[in-house]
C-alpha cells in the first residue's frame, strides 16, 4: 500500500514537472487528454494575443520585439509568483492550518500578487525594454498578459498533480484567469477610454437630440424670408469684368456688390488667411432693425457661411438699408473646372416659419428606403429559411452522430465525389454552349451546371463508395484493404494539408511578417502541411484497421458547423461590400448580404433547437424500423416547429 502511494506521489511530481515545461502535458499523459489540450490551447492563444496586442502601439508592429519582451516579462512574473506561492505554502504548513485560515491566506496571496506586480511594474518593464523600445510596445499590456499567463502556468502545474490522484479539479481558476486576460487585452485592442467618454459626452447631445426627435426635418415649413443675391466671378482672369452689377429696386429687397470679379482668399497649412478681393455690399428694402446673414454658394451649388473674412451677421438700419464689407472667402476650385467660375452671394433675413402637413424630401426618401429595407429583410428571411433548413439538420449533433460508414466506403465516396463533379462538368459544357453560354442564358447555364455537377458528384459518391466497400469485404485481402485505406486517406489528408499550408503562409506569415515572405515560403509550407496531414491521416487509417468504421456524420457535422460559424462571424456590411462588387450597388446587394448572414444565423439557431429535442420519439420510431427521413418528419419536425417559428420571426425583426 505504501509502495503504491509513493509511486502515485512520484508520478504526480513527474506530471507537475511536465506541465511546467509544456502546459497541459501532465494532464494529457495522466488520462485527462481533453483537459490538457484545453489548457495548452488556452495558453497558446493568450500568448499569441498578448504578443499581437502589445505590438499594435507602433504603426508598423515589430512582433519580434514584442515576442522578446513578452518572454522576458513572462520569466520575471513566473519567478515573482513562484516566490509568493512558496510563501503561501510555507504559511499553510506553519501558521494557516485551519480551513478558514487557509481560505484567508489564499485571498491574501491573490491581493499580494496583484499588488506586487503593480508595484514593480515600472522595474519589470524597464528591465525588458529600453526607453526607445517602450515607445513601440504597450509595455503595461504585455506585463499584464505575461502575469496572467504565468498565473495560469503555475496553476496548471498544481492541477496536473491533482489529476493523477483521480480527482476532478475545478476549472474555475482557468476560466477566471483566462477571462481576466481577455478583458485586459480586449480593453487595449478596442481602445476603451472611459474618462474621455464621460468627459466629452456633451458632444453627442446635438446628434442624439435629432435622433430622438427628428420631426422638424420630417416636414416642410413655409417661411417668409427676405433675401437678395448677386453673382460674383472668382478667380478673375485678365480682361474679365465679371457679371453685371445689380441695380437698386423700389419694391423688393436688393443688394449691390462691387466689384463682381476678383480673387478668392487662401489659407495655408496653419490656417492663416491670405485675404482675397475686398467687396463692398450695399442693400435696401430689408426689414428694418432685424438681423441679416450672408451666405456664399460655390459654382457647383453648395452653400456655406464664410468665416474669418468679414462680418457675416449684422443688423439692418431703421430705413431697411445696410452697407458692409467682406473679403471673397476661400473656396476650393477643382483643377478640372472649365470656363468662368460664377459664385452667388446671398443676404437673407429669416422670417416666421409656418408648419405644413407636407412631408419633406428627406422624409419621403427615408420612408421609401424604410420600405425597401423591410422588403429586403422579408426576402432575405424567406430565402434564408429555405437554404438554412438542410444545413441546420446537418449541423445537429444528435442527428448526425449515428451516421457511420466503413473506411473504404468513405475513401471511395470522397474520390467518387471529385470524379463525379469532374465528369458532370465535362458533360455540362457542350449543353451550356448549345443554350448560348453564360452571357446569353445565365439561368439555364446555372441550372445545367448545378444539376449535372452536383448530381454527378452525389451519384459517384454513392457508387464509388459502395464499390470500394464491396471489393474490400468480398474480393480483397485484409492487407490490401489496409494498404488502400492508408494510401487513400493519406492522399486526402495530403491534399487538405497542401491547401492549409498555403493558407498558413498567406494568412498568418503574410500578416505577421510581409506578403513577399509569404509568397516565398508558400510552396514549402504547402509541402510541409501535405506531408504532415498525409502522415496523420494515413496513421489514423492504419489504426482503424480493415473494414473499420468512420463517423462520417460527425465529420459532416463539424464541417457544416465550421462554415456556419465563419459565415456568421463576418458582418453583413462586409457581405454587402462583396455583393456590391458582385451585382453593383442597390437593394439586390443588400438582399444578398442579409441572405448569406441569415442562412448562417438561422442554421445555428435551428440546429440548437434540433439538438435540444426529446430523444424519446426518435428512439420509438427507430425501434419500429422507420428510416431516417420518416424519423425526421414524424419525430423531429413536430418538436422543432414552435422554436423554428420563433427564431424566424426574431431573425426577420433583426
Short overview:
With 654 residues, this protein is α+β, with helices and mostly antiparallel strands.
Notes on the protein architecture:
The protein has 23 helices and 14 strands. The protein has helices spanning 2-21, 25-29, 33-54, 63-94, 99-119, 121-128, 131-134, 139-163, 172-189, 194-199, 205-212, 361-394, 397-400, 407-435, 437-440, 442-474, 478-512, 515-544, 552-569, 572-583, 587-611, 616-623, 628-653, and strands at 219-223, 226-233, 254-258, 266-267, 273-274, 278-284, 291-297, 303-304, 313-315, 322-327, 342-349, 353-359, 405-406, 549-550. The strands form 5 sheets. Strands 2, 7, 8, 9 and 11 form a 5-stranded antiparallel β-sheet that branches. The protein has a 3-stranded antiparallel β-sheet with strand order 3-6-10, with no helix packed on it. The chain has a two-stranded antiparallel sheet with strand order 1-12. Helix 4 packs across helix 6 (121-128), helix 4 crosses helix 8 and helix 12 packs antiparallel against helix 23 (628-653). The radius of gyration is 37 Å and the shape is extended. The relative contact order is 0.06.
How is the topology of this model organized?
Blueprint: H1 2-21, H2 25-29, H3 33-54, H4 63-94, H5 99-119, H6 121-128, H7 131-134, H8 139-163, H9 172-189, H10 194-199, H11 205-212, E1 219-223, E2 226-233, E3 254-258, E4 266-267, E5 273-274, E6 278-284, E7 291-297, E8 303-304, E9 313-315, E10 322-327, E11 342-349, E12 353-359, H12 361-394, H13 397-400, E13 405-406, H14 407-435, H15 437-440, H16 442-474, H17 478-512, H18 515-544, E14 549-550, H19 552-569, H20 572-583, H21 587-611, H22 616-623, H23 628-653
Antiparallel strand pairs: 1-12, 2-11, 3-6, 4-5, 6-10, 7-8, 7-9, 7-11, 13-14
Helix pairs in contact: 1-8, 3-4, 3-8, 3-9, 4-5, 4-6, 4-8, 8-9, 12-21, 12-23, 14-16, 14-17, 17-18, 19-21, 20-21, 21-23, 22-23
Amino acid at each position: 500500500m505504501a509502495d503504491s502511494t509513493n509511486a502515485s506521489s512520484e508520478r504526480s511530481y513527474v506530471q507537475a514537472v511536465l506541465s511546467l515545461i509544456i502546459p497541459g502535458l501532465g494532464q494529457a499523459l495522466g488520462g485527462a487528454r481533453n483537459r490538457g489540450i484545453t489548457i495548452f490551447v488556452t495558453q497558446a492563444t493568450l500568448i499569441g494575443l498578448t504578443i499581437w496586442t502589445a505590438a499594435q502601439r507602433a504603426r508598423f508592429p515589430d512582433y519580434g520585439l514584442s515576442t522578446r519582451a513578452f518572454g522576458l516579462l513572462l520569466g520575471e512574473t513566473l519567478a515573482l509568483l513562484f516566490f509568493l506561492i512558496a510563501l503561501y505554502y510555507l504559511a499553510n504548513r506553519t501558521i494557516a492550518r485551519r480551513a478558514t485560515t487557509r481560505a484567508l491566506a489564499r485571498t491574501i496571496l491573490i491581493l499580494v500578487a496583484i499588488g506586487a506586480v503593480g508595484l514593480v511594474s515600472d522595474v519589470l518593464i524597464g528591465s525588458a525594454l529600453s526607453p526607445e523600445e517602450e515607445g513601440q510596445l504597450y509595455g503595461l499590456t504585455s506585463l499584464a498578459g505575461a502575469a496572467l499567463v504565468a498565473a495560469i502556468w503555475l496553476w496548471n502545474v498544481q492541477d496536473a498533480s491533482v489529476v493523477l490522484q483521480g480527482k476532478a479539479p475545478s476549472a474555475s481558476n482557468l476560466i477566471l484567469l483566462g477571462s481576466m486576460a481577455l478583458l485586459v487585452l480586449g480593453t487595449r485592442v478596442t481602445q476603451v477610454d472611459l474618462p474621455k467618454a464621460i468627459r466629452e459626452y456633451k458632444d453627442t447631445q446635438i446628434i442624439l437630440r435629432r435622433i430622438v426627435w427628428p420631426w422638424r426635418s420630417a416636414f416642410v415649413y413655409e417661411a417668409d424670408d427676405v433675401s437678395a443675391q448677386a453673382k460674383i466671378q472668382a478667380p478673375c482672369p485678365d480682361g474679365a469684368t465679371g457679371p453685371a452689377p445689380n441695380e437698386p429696386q423700389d419694391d423688393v429687397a436688393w443688394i449691390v456688390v462691387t466689384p463682381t470679379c476678383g480673387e478668392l482668399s487662401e489659407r495655408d497649412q496653419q490656417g492663416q488667411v491670405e485675404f482675397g478681393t475686398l467687396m463692398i455690399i450695399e442693400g435696401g428694402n430689408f426689414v428694418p432693425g432685424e438681423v441679416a446673414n450672408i451666405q456664399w454658394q460655390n459654382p457647383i451649388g453648395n452653400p456655406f457661411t464664410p468665416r474669418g473674412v468679414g462680418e457675416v451677421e449684422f443688423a439692418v438700419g431703421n430705413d431697411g438699408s445696410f452697407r458692409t464689407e467682406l473679403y471673397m472667402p476661400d473656396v476650393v476650385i477643382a483643377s478640372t473646372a472649365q470656363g468662368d467660375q460664377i459664385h452667388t452671394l446671398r443676404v437673407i433675413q429669416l422670417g416666421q416659419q409656418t408648419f405644413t402637413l407636407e412631408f419633406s424630401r428627406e422624409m419621403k426618401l427615408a420612408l421609401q428606403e424604410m420600405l425597401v429595407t423591410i422588403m429586403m429583410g422579408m426576402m432575405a428571411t424567406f430565402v434564408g429559411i429555405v437554404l438554412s433548413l438542410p444545413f441546420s439538420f446537418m449541423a445537429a449533433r444528435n442527428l448526425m452522430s449515428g451516421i457511420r460508414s466503413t473506411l473504404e466506403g468513405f475513401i471511395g465516396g470522397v474520390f467518387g465525389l471529385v470524379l463525379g463533379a469532374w465528369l458532370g462538368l465535362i458533360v455540362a459544357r457542350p449543353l451550356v454552349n448549345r443554350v448560348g453560354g453564360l452571357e446569353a442564358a445565365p439561368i439555364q447555364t446555372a441550372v445545367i451546371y448545378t444539376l449535372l455537377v452536383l448530381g454527378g458528384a452525389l451519384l459517384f459518391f454513392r457508387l464509388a463508395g459502395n464499390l470500394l466497400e464491396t471489393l474490400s469485404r468480398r474480393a480483397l485481402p485484409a492487407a490490401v484493404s489496409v494498404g488502400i485505406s492508408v494510401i487513400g486517406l493519406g492522399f486526402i489528408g495530403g491534399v487538405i494539408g497542401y491547401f492549409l499550408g498555403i493558407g498558413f503562409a498567406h494568412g498568418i506569415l503574410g500578416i505577421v511578417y510581409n506578403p513577399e515572405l509569404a509568397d516565398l515560403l508558400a510552396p514549402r509550407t504547402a509541402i510541409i502541411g501535405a506531408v504532415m496531414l498525409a502522415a496523420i491521416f494515413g496513421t489514423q487509417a492504419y489504426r482503424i484497421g480493415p473494414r473499420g468504421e468512420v463517423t462520417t456524420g460527425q465529420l459532416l457535422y463539424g464541417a457544416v458547423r465550421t462554415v456556419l460559424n465563419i459565415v456568421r462571424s463576418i458582418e453583413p456590411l462586409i457581405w454587402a461590400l462583396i455583393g456590391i462588387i458582385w451585382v453593383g450597388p442597390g437593394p439586390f446587394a443588400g438582399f444578398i448580404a442579409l441572405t448569406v448572414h441569415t442562412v448562417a444565423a438561422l442554421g445555428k439557431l435551428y440546429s440548437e433547437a434540433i439538438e435540444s429535442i426529446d430523444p424519446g420519439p426518435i428512439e420509438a420510431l427507430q425501434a419500429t424500423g422507420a428510416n431516417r427521413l420518416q424519423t425526421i418528419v414524424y419525430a423531429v419536425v413536430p418538436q422543432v416547429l414552435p422554436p423554428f417559428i420563433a427564431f424566424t420571426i426574431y431573425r426577420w425583426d433583426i
